[in-house]
Amino acid sequence: MATIVFCSVNKTAQTTARRCLTSHLKKLSSAGESRPPSTCIHGNPVASLLGTRWFSRGCSVRFMSRGTAGRSASGRTRRAALALSGAAAVTAAAAVAGFLANANHFQRAEMATKVSQAAEESEQEGEILERCMGFMSLPVTNVGVLEERKEEMRTRMEMLIMETQADFCKALQVVDGGTFKVDRWQRNEGGGGISCVMQDGKVFEKAGVNVSVVFGNLTEEAARQMKSRGKVLKGKDGKLPFCAMGVSSVIHPKNPHIPTVHFNYRYFEIEEEDGTKQWWFGGGTDLTPVYVNKEDAFHFHNTLKEACDKHHLQYYPDFKKWCDRYFYVRHRGETRGIGGIFFDDLDSPSQEEAFNFVKSCSRTVVPCYLPIVYKHLNDSFTDEEKDWQQVRRGRYVEFNLVYDRGVKFGLATPGSRIESILMSLPLTAKWEYMHEPAKGTLEAEMLEVLRNPKEWV
Questions:
Q1: Fewer Cβ atoms within 10 A, N terminus or C terminus of the chain?
Q2: Which of 173, 406, 382 lies closest to 290 in space, CA to CA?
Q3: 3-class DSSP state of 338
Q4: 41-60 confidence digits (pLDDT tens)
Q5: 48 exposed, middle or buried (CB, 10 Å; 0-12, 13-18, 19+)?
Q6: Which residues pair with 199 in a beta bridge?
Q7: How is domain 2-451 classified at the CATH fold level?
Q8: Residue 225 pairs with which residues in a beta bridge?
Q9: How far is CA 187 from CA 193, 209, 272, 302, in A?
Q10: Contacts (Cβ under 8 Å, ≥6 apart) of 406
Q11: What global pTM score does this model have?
């Protein structure tokens, strides 16, 4: 059976630790210092300042498994241990303990989603320093600046994307047994990012989770892309000051029966010549399996639907259709995968409500994907199935390089970090001349779904 052990510490010790952390963080922020990976605890330089016992807001969470929990509970996952923070700890604790303890993967996912919703409802956003303790790295923006403007949307969104990155990375580390390389980078024109990448792991061939916070003046090319989507932007002296931030992830598993997943949630803010600001949110989550699995598809889409339905019953059907249209490889006549949700230019009904919707979506990335990973963790596969995965990855590359807006925007933005932009590409892929699967095969079934998108919920 799986057990969760919570280790608490007294409030006096917490207060002392927090004061030490506050002092040290301010020094790091003012100096722009980042700790090398060798001093990190689970890739977390903030936690390493005080040691593991102070990690996760005064509590550490360990996952331990005893006995047999079905074929999905491999030895490495039973031995995995991980500290998580705040609401992320509650969500992941419920999810991972459930993964290992029960036979029905998707009942466990439902439980994890409910716990995540409860944690979200009780969340208090005020404690910037405490929340930083659970991140993979210090935030991109100086912690002191975040404290000063903690009520602004830019700060709240940066904290959300940092938490989303940390939650997802730590959940993936549990199942893989590997660790993410945490790579901080700066953009000379303004801002920077944090790239977390795990390559050639036990489960994941390549897993990347990026955060970027960039600002400066929008280029004419980038502005034209936005105007083509209906944005009317009026700059001063030909300049449009902007701030863009987001979290983006693409996970390429080794096993062809574990799907590739992608998500991206972002916020954009532009100041016009009269000082007014235009803002909008965008993003989505989508799944790219190599083989059709209706149970997986239902679980993935239903988890997203439940998150959308909390805000508007029309969000899921509208954003599902948008996703199918957006992730369409026109020159192949097929979608990239089985979709999910996708939206852009979301600036209504209010900034607060739009942000709360994005927050709900970001909280689904663990419960919508990890149950599928655990379900297929030990599935056997043939050389032919691996070849088909390589062919499908080739299609993934084609979409990202030819159509993806995020890649286009990144390449058109001066000072962008190419390694982070192209992180979404797999380590290996394949292009076979005139490849067409034989009729009646599972590969042909997958292709039929991609050519004719289905309603999964």
A1: N
A2: 382
A3: coil
A4: 333 433 333 333 223 333 33
A5: middle
A6: 206
A7: oxygen-dependent coproporphyrinogen oxidase (3.40.1500)
A8: none
A9: 8, 18, 23, 39
A10: 248, 264, 421
A11: 0.74
